Amino acid sequence: HNLIFECSHFSFIRRLTQPYYKIKKDNTKKLVRYMNSKNLERTEHHCYLLEMIKANRIINNNFYNIFICEGVFDALTVRVALQNKCLSFSSGGATSTQNLIATRIKEVAEEVFRKTNKKLNIVLLFDNDKAGEKGQDFRTENKYINLHSEFKNILGESKDINEEFKKNRIKFIYNLDKINKTLN
Predict the structure, then answer these.
(1) Which of 3, 28, 94, 173 is the most buried (most CB within 10 A)?
(2) Segment (H or E) for 58
(3) In angstroms, rounded to a whole number, what is the distance separating the alpha carbons of residues 65 and 48?
């Protein structure tokens, strides 16, 4: 009764479709919605669709805006809203992946700039909660990258992208499309 999303050729994220509660150290219950595959030496397995961030894919498709979301469904929602005319991936909500993501994006951004003289726009669209606030601390100081965290208001009062998409689909798609076109 789970949905499995392959994150890379060696790992996956499991989306739990039935409530599952993990008992924390203080004996309180925490609702768990996602479970990552076994913790591997590389943390890339948390980052759904990160493998799509490649210089040639960006250049060939004119995808100079990359949307980083917290959850798998959020990343998929961005792709649906922009009709697959973008690159979007999930950080898996794990702050431990931020160095991996930053390193990967810096390498790709430098290669893209060398080939096209264009910078990448990285758009942070994390959840409206404490974990999302931590994600906003994402740092990629690099002369080939423009980092955008100012679009958090696109979520309105919703917890995350997926919820906002369900509540205000037309407005959300319009705003996201406007961001995508403005940055291009």
Answers:
(1) 94
(2) helix 55-61
(3) 17
Write out the two tokens for 160.
Answer: 């995350």
Only one residue has tokens 């990967």, namely: 104
pLDDT at 4: 67
- Return mean pLDDT, the chain: 82
* CA–CA distance, 153 with 42 (Å, rounded to integer): 33
Assigned token pair, 173: 């798609």
**pLDDT band at 67, cuts 50/70/90?**
very high
Three-class secondary structure assignment of the chain? CEEEEEEECCEEEEEEEEEEEEECCCCCEEEEEEEECCCCCCHHHHCCCHHHCCHHHHHHHCCCEEEEECCHHHHHHHHHHCCCCCEEEECCCCHHHHHHHHHHHHHHHHHHHHHHCCCEEEEEECCCCHHHHHHCCCCCCCCCEEEECCCHHHHCCCCCHHHHHHHCHHHHHHHHHHHHHHHC
C-alpha distances (whole Å) from 182 to each of 103, 142, 155, 162 are: 26, 21, 18, 22
pTM for the model? 0.78
Give CA–CA dist 45/64, Å, rounded. 24
**CB neighbours of residue 1 within 10 Å:** 5
